[in-house]
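Worked problem 6 (solution included).
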Amino acid sequence: MQAWRVHRNGEPGEVMTLDETDRPVPGEGQVLLSVRAANINFPDALLCRGQYQVRPPLPFTPGVEICGLTEDGRRVLATPVLPNGGLAEYVVVDEAALLPAPGALDDAEAAALHIGYQTGWFGLHRRARIQPGETLLVHAAAGGVGSAAVQLGKAAGATVIGVVGGPEKAAVARKLGCDLVVDRRTEDIVATVKEATGGRGADVVYDPVGGDAYAKSVKCIAFEGRIVVVGFAGGTVPAPALNHVLVKNYSVLGLHWGLYNTKDPAAVRACHDELTGLAAQGLVKPLVSERVPMSAAADAVQRVADGTTTGRVVVLPTGSTR
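Solution. The predicted structure is:
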């Protein structure tokens, strides 16, 4: 079978190679999946660079999120265990960790539903306890992680302000349902948020960017507001000023979604049921901006790393169009 593998760390476009490898053989409690769609996540780029919190042995196959087909014909979602990731024609996964693919979504959409939407749901509901009528500020609102938070925020009854970089991404954010879009390249985030909220500020901030995005967030956070720290795609890890947290009465909440898989797997399955229901109602639908063939996977991971994509880019190893 074909599988993309990383033999040395570096930029994805330079270190990912498409290799011929043996088809994996499932062990006890495992199943073999044919990969119908593999969603690209920013961690795939970090894995290539050797900058992710998990550093699999070389060589490894990236791809942390897939929609696949079991040998008995079930369409499922899975998060393959590294070093044998999902950017391959076949992958072996633990049967106990499989989730049914939502019938309302095609393969590419289903592959993009899991990690980003689970992260968004846990961040907004479990950590921030978002309430109907509150104002949600989402950074990188046109990206894969941000777009999920926008849809989930709207489904929760929040007013959503999306921050993007550039007019093309602003148009995407509006189509996603943002009530207000702020182009950080040409507009003042803090002033715009305060004006839109009558001076109150945002009740909840969803921040997968860090750096300057976090710095702006603390200047426009509401009384008893909550900032959910999801990641640092901007490359800079902020250092919160705790005296400022105290003076303004807001909370900074961390979210490492992967911990729930080991600490509270029942919550992950309950969240999947919730997301499946929202998808069936049409309240969430992953924005798949590109569906690329297996041969284009390395370039796609590189473009996600560079921040030039919108929504989700999904690799179709078997040419699936569902």
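Discussion: Residues 144 and 311 are 4 Å apart (CA to CA).
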